[in-house]
Amino acid sequence: MTRPAEQPATRLKGVGPALAERLEKLGIRQVGDLLLHLPIRYEDRSRLVPLAQLRVGSAVLVEGRIQQSRLSYGRRRSLVVVIGDGQGLLGLRFFHFSAAQQAGLSDGRLVRAFGEIRPGSGGLEMVHPEYRCFDSDPPPPEPGLTPVYGTTRGLTQERLRRLTAQLAELAWPQGPGSPYADLLLLHRPGPTNSIAEIEATRERLALDELTAYHLIMRHRQSSRDRLRTIPLPRARQLGRKLLEGLGFELTGAQRRVVREVLEDLEQSRPMLRLLQGDVGSGKTVIAAFAAVRAAEHGAQTALMAPTEILAEQHYVNFSAWLAPLGIRVVLLTGGMTARAQAQTCAEIAAGEALVAVGTHALFQKSVSFARLALNIIDEQHRFGVHQRMALRDKGSLPHQLIMTATPIPRTLTMALYADMAVSVIDELPRGRQPIDTRVVPETRRDDVIAGLRQALARGTQAYWVCPLIEDPDQPGLAAAETTMEMLRSSLPGFAVDLLHGRMTNARKAEVMAAFKSGATHLLVATTVIEVGVDVPNATVMVIENPERMGLAQLHQLRGRVGRGTERSACILLYQPPLGAMAQARLATIRDSQDGFYIAERDLELRGPGELLGTRQTGELGFRIADLALHAHLVPDAIRRGDRLLAEHPAEAAALLEAWAPAETGTLTV
Ligand code: ADP
Ligand code: MG
After folding, report:
1. HEC states along 106-173?
2. Which pLDDT score is estimated for 613?
3. What is the mean pLDDT of the chain?
4. With bands split at pLDDT 50, 70 and 90, how would you rate the model's confidence at 473?
5. Containing H/E element for 382?
6. Range with the lowest mean pLDDT among 150-159, 176-185, 655-664?
7. Given this model, what pLDDT does residue 611 score?
8. Ligand nearest to the CA of 377
């Protein structure tokens, strides 16, 4: 017999094709999916609250006889039904109602309703309560807390509740590690279960799920240990030449990380290493050392960047660093002509090009490498899940170095990247000056421009970042084109140019080159410059509407300045008034330049979806664990998972069986 979890949802009473389709929208195909579709909150409908004791804002169950039912013609027509219980009165207001509904709500009938109490024009009211009328004595209220589910159009809470009520009747496996009793309790709390107990149950389940996830990561790690790839031991001392040609000394952190990466590359087991380093910490050069090591063996490196601007910049840097060592570097982006692409592909296929820098164009099927030994992915958080997978599967499983400037809090790293080795560059190159960050209201724009004029006159360059290119629908937001016009006229004598994502690649490259060379003084840009752009002479950045951006994004943007030895400034030009949350967020950016601290705060203020991009949290596919709430459980989950593997393999297997049945078959515990 198939296990209950794997049976189709249509096995449940009342689920026909139409309902099945709606359930599918919630990701519910099998009974197990419904079991994991947990309530988002609970309501207390176990107790009738007397009408004289209602408080605004609370959601309560009430009962009373209809005293009056009338149409009200305020700003919108509505049906108002006043009920009374002898001590108090309450209005039930409906903006949408059928004739049958109106007729049913007739004077004298007994109504039981559930909803939130709000202040109304003539006293307290409930708007669109859930209600039922009774002509005889009503049954006692339902004991226990009532679950409220996330749902979709055309699927009522009541219908979902009737479905989840059926779950308790199925034959769920029991035993150590079995989560079913806990899951059923979350769907149908008993009369004595308090919210605190429900929360504790949920936390216990989250710990189970995180533990199961850790077990999967462990498994992936050990299966990778059995794979083989091209080992890249020390060969021709080209790394030393690279070091001599750099023109700067590596920081201690960079030296340490280069060593970690090169040691991994020496193994025949493919490397899978995450390199975390704050903006400007100097990750690119680490990639260069790795590519040089591969080149010493005549093996190829693919370096993938998320934008064409960044790919081109890497191409320029890598060419400057590696060409003197006799290593041929090529660029491949979607923006190149078909002919140029074909030419480059031919060089890659022939193995003449040892380093191929590009965008995701590098991973099209038409590109085949002669001897690919190393994949480097820059700004990994900017790529989708698919691309990450495609990279893993390309060619003969090369070594992989994944670089990210999103400083992911440690607990999250442990959860997200448990199957990878992690290197951290936790030191900025010497001589970097702190960035003076100010939060300034838009009303002081003229002062900001005056300050900018002085800075430009001193010979520094600047960025002015706007959230949009041009959008008549969002008039309050700064748009790059208008802003550029405005700045051109208020800054005569300075070259002001524009960069945005909808320009052709050739034009973007031209604009960047002019800015890099110093010909352009002020670059007005959308957030396309968020990643990677490196112009050390640019020391002022103005960011418009920072209140609309994420902290991680602001931190990345600001990282475009403060790259030289000059003191830099960043002005957050906000649109007043600011809400309390926005104030707290901008203050975080103003007061800290530590990407890790900012990420922790961002996690606290907004949750991991925002921080990592929903795609990444989606990739994890946690059903219960919520990393914003449960990050503190991660260390426990790791300890517990390792202990189960070592001492209680049957329990580890049961956990996986419950949480990740698809992985169970492949796991050897
Ligand atoms: P990110 O980690 O943000 O990718 P980059 O690799 O772009 O940082 O480095 C930022 C700038 O710092 C570049 O101009 C780079 O050449 C320079 N740089 C990197 N390492 C050092 C160092 N050890 N000393 C001085 N400058 C460095
Ligand atoms: Mg970078």
Report:
1. CCCCEEEEEEECEEECCEEEEECCEEEEECCCCCCCCCCEEEECCCCCCCCHHHHHHHHHHHCCCCCC
2. 43
3. 86
4. low
5. none
6. 655-664
7. 44
8. 2
Tokens of 242: 């690279």
Token pair for residue 327? 């290593």
Pairwise CA distance, residues 594 & 424, whole Å: 13
**Confidence band (pLDDT; 50, 70, 90) for 245?**
very high
Ligand with minimal distance to 305 CA: 2
What is d(CA 649, CA 632) in angstroms, rounded to the nearest whole number? 25
Residue nearest to atom 20 of ligand 1 (CA): 282
In the reported structure, the alpha carbon of residue 285 is separated from the centroid of ligand 1 by a whole-number distance in angstroms of 7
pLDDT at 255 over 90: yes
Q: How many residues does the chain have?
A: 669
Question: How deeply is 303 buried, as exposed, middle or buried, from its count of CB atoms within 10 A (0-12, 13-18, 19+)?
Answer: buried
Contact between 652 and 644 (Cβ < 8 Å)? yes
| Proximal ligand: closest to the CA of 248 | 1
DSSP characters over 402-450: EEE-S---HHHHHHHTTTSEEEEE--PPTTPPPEEEEEEEGGGHHHHHH
Bond preceding residue 4 cis, omega within 30 of 0: no
Kindly give the distance from the C-alpha atom of residue 513 to the centroid of ligand 2, in angstroms, as a whole number. Answer: 18
More reliable by pLDDT, 137 or 379? 137
Query: Which is more confidently placed, 425 or 531?
Result: 425
Quote the tokens at residue 377. Answer: 């992915």
Write out the DSSP string of 285-303: HHHHHHHHHHHHTT-EEEE
Identify the band that residue 385 occupies on the pLDDT scale cut at 50, 70 and 90: very low
pTM exceeds 0.85, yes or no: no
Give 507 or 254, the one with higher predicted confidence: 254
Q: Which atom of ligand 1 is nearest to the CA of 279?
A: 3
The protein residue whose alpha carbon is closest to atom 4 in ligand 1 is 283
Would you place residue 666 in the very low, low, confident or very high pLDDT band (cuts 50, 70, 90)? very low
Among the listed residues 521, 497, 495, 522, the one whose alpha carbon sits nearest the alpha carbon of residue 509: 497
> For residue 483, what are the contacts with CB-CB under 8 A and spacing of at least 6?
464, 466, 524, 544
The pLDDT value recorded for residue 582 is: 87
Top-confidence residue, 140 or 659 = 140
Q: How far apart are CA 341 and CA 361, in angstroms?
A: 9
Rounded to the nearest angstrom, the distance between the alpha carbon of 321 and the centre of ligand 2 is 16
What is the token pair recorded at 441? 């209201």
**Closest residue by Cα to residue 537 from 428, 430, 459, 433:** 459
Q: Enter the tokens of residue 32.
A: 């197990």
248 CA to middle of ligand 1, Å? 9
- What mean pLDDT is predicted for residues 551-577? 89
Both structure tokens of 457: 């006159």
Cβ atoms of residues 276 and 423 within 8 Å? yes
Note whether 114 and 61 are within 8 A (CB).
Answer: yes
Residue 304 CB neighbours (<10 A): 26
Q: What percent of the chain has pLDDT over 70?
A: 89
- Residue 416 scores a pLDDT above 70: no
Report the distance separating Cα 201 and Cα 186, nearest Å: 8
Angle at 389 between CA 8 and CA 284, to 5 degrees: 150
Q: CA-to-CA distance for 40 and 423, rounded, in angstroms?
A: 37
Instruction: Output the six-digit token pair for 465.
Output: 């970042």
Angstrom distances, CA of residue 24 to CA of 15, 18, 37, 153? 12, 10, 12, 12
Kind and range of the H or E run holding 472: none
Q: Is 201 helix (H, G, I), strand (E, B) or coil?
A: helix
CB under 5 Å of ion ligand 2: residues: 532
d(CA 388, CA 385): 5
First-to-last C-alpha distance (Å) of the chain: 25
**Residue 249 gets which letter from DSSP?**
P
